[in-house]
Amino acid sequence: MTNRSISEWRLEVRNLAVSYGTRSIQHDLDFSVRPRSIFAIMGGSGCGKSTVLRALVGLLRPAAGAILVDGEDYWAADETRHADIGRRFGVLFQSGALWSSMTVAENVALPLRMFTDLSNDAIGILVGLKLSFVGLAAAADRMPAELSGGMRKRAGLARALALDPEVLFFDEPSAGLDPITSRRLDDLILELSHGFGATVVIVSHELPSLFAICDDGVFLDAETKTAIAHGSPRSLRDHCDHPTVRAFMDREQLVAAPAGGLPS
Hints:
The chain is α/β, with parallel strands linked by helices. It has a domain at 36-47 and 86-249: Rossmann fold, CATH 3.40.50. Helices cover 36% and strands 22% of the residues. It has helices at 49-57, 79-86, 104-115, 120-133, 149-160, 179-196, 207-213, 233-239, 243-249; strands spanning 11-20, 23-33, 38-42, 64-69, 72-73, 89-92, 167-171, 199-203, 216-221, 226-230. A six-stranded mixed β-sheet has the order 6-7-8-3-9-10, sandwiched between helices. The longest helix is centred in the last third of the chain and has 18 residues, at 179-196. It is globular and about 55 Å long.
């Protein structure tokens, strides 16, 4: 890898196709994620947003094309290098994906125990810092089943942050959350981007969150199975004339407003 700063880091998708067996999901995708941007992968249900995300984070091999991480082809790398690149990513899955048999602190510590040689004391300090950032310091010893939906999302975010990733991926982060909790999670994402310089990629169809936090994006179409628009959600809402995009963006007349605090 080149010794570029995080501010110069870039994720690029070139002629990407994803499929399940012989069933094409999306094809001919081309887009770049700017450093420090909050990039949205948009589209209606069933268009393949989460499938594309799985390819980006290393869980699904593309059928064609390339995913370039700072100029290096992620999927062309050997197994060791592929894993090294993947550790630059943090992922928050829709459910939070916490291990039910582990405490919140143990869940957050897991990546540190798997991928570092840090001492138990050092891991404990880092876990405390990550949980404090997401407002869960007091919940370190609780089990996932004891947490509300918003708390589980925040615990999953703390774990995604454990290895100080350069890019964070969120799969439907607002799913299952009430509007106030969702907006507070948006604030955390904004703080990660604006305050810490993280690059963020979000899969979502939730208009309030898309309008509130995302400054770039790509719109995937279920019928043509490719991208039909590029730009920020607000720009697409205000200027895109494609009927599918218009129908998606106009389905609710919502204007995102700033929110404060943390998810409950």
